[in-house]
Structures are given as C-alpha cells and as structure tokens.
Amino acid sequence: MPAPLSIIIPALNAERVLPLCLSSLMPGLETGLIREVILVDGGSEDQTRRLADGAGAKVLSAPEQGRAAQLRHGAEHARGDWLLFLHADTALSRDWAERAKNHITDRPDKAAAFTLAYRSDHPMAKTVARRANWRARSLGLPYGDQGLLLSRKLYGEVGGYPDTPFMEDVKIVRALGKRRISILSAEARTDAAKYDRDGWRKRSWRNAILVTRYFLGASPEKLAKSYS
C-alpha cells in the first residue's frame, strides 16, 4: 500500500527558508508517511527550484500567479489520499509525523492544522503566536502558516482552494467549518522576518485589520494590494 501523504509547498524566491522546511519533513519519510513532496514554483529567480529538486521533491511551475493557483495546481498533481499544504517558510517540529499519522487514522473526516510558533527570540513572538492559536482553536480559523492537512475526499467536498488573489487560507477553513478542523499539538514554526522588519505590533495589527476588512466584505483583490 503506498504512503498516504502528498505534501504541497507553494514557493517564490524561497531559497533562504526552504532548506529548513524540507529538512523538517524527514520524520514523515522515516515513518513511511510521505508519498511525495511537490513544490509549486511561482517564478523564482533564485535557487528555490534547484534546492527542491536536489532534495527529491517534484518541482512544478504554477500556471498563473498567486499562491491559491499554486496550491490548486499542486493538489491536481498529487497522488496521495491525504494532502498537506505547507508554506515554504514553515518548518514542522519533529513530532509532526506522529501527530499527523494519528489524525489520519483517528479522524479521517476532519482536517487539521498545527500549533503556530515563530522562529524568533523577540519578546512579542510568543504573545502573537498565542493569539493566533486562540483564534485557531476558538474560531476554527488557523493561519496558512499553520499548514493544512486533509483527505483528498474532504478537499474535494469543500471545493479545494478558491480562485482568489488573497485570503485563500481563510476561505478554505471557513468552507470546512470549525467542527471539521482539529489543531494538532506539533508545531508549525514559521519564519518571522516580516514581523522583525515591520515591527511585531504593527504587523500584528495590520494582519488583524486585513482579516476584519475581509469579513466585513472587502474584496480579496483590494486587500491583496495592501499586503506585502
């Protein structure tokens, strides 16, 4: 029986963060959980494609711009019965494979995301992560940085990732609904460069305002212009 899990990584000029992301997947290979790793490139001009290919990943080119298009394209080419969508700047804690395997076995009708952590020593890092994890558990709204694990069947039932320039992660978890999302204790440790660059408070408030505007009806197209 083939390994069940296809991991799909959208990437764009990710050479700085990709090696850590890929190396964190090793427990899944060691336990026979991973069938394939698919990197969907959005037009990188650095060594992203070479790094992924050298690590044994299948490298695809996105048919159009935008992370949603990359995610959809990866899912279309995946062969596993389960899909894990993972950002290139996120590295999983070593216990991720065990937690994912338990979820696949025990809760096949549900999706899952990991507990968020930031790779930063800044004093605000744990505070921001704690707020994000509260949002994920209480409202059923994990960030894309937390990864998304779900069966191919469930992915199809909710229509997959939407064709949108922004907020694709919010749209798919809203389609799933809180009752169909579990938060696993293994950590998704995401890069904090944007927070360090912009300031932790400023970046946190900016993200919260963007989500609020989206829920109040602002178009993803308009919001995308405000995000970088």
**Residue share in helices?**
40-55%
Counting DSSP H or I runs of 4 or more residues, the number of helices is 11
Number of domains: 1
Structural class, please? alpha/beta
Low-confidence runs (pLDDT<50, min 5 residues)? none
Oligomerization status of the protein chains = single chain
Q: What's the helix-strand series?
A: EHHEHEHEEHEHEHHEHHH
| Widest β-sheet, arrangement of strands | 3-2-1-4-7
Task: Report on the biggest sheet.
Answer: 5 strands, mixed
Stated plainly, the CATH topology is called: Spore Coat Polysaccharide Biosynthesis Protein SpsA, Chain A
> What would the average pLDDT be, to the nearest integer?
95
Distance between the termini: 43 Å
**Strand composition percent:** 15-25%
CATH architecture: Alpha-Beta Complex
What is the secondary structure topology, with strand pairs?
Blueprint: E1 5-11, H1 18-23, H2 26-30, E2 34-41, H3 48-54, E3 58-61, H4 67-77, E4 82-85, E5 90-92, H5 96-106, E6 111-119, H6 125-139, E7 148-151, H7 152-157, H8 168-176, E8 181-191, H9 193-198, H10 200-215, H11 220-224
Parallel strand pairs: 1-2, 1-4, 2-3, 6-8
Antiparallel strand pairs: 4-7, 5-8
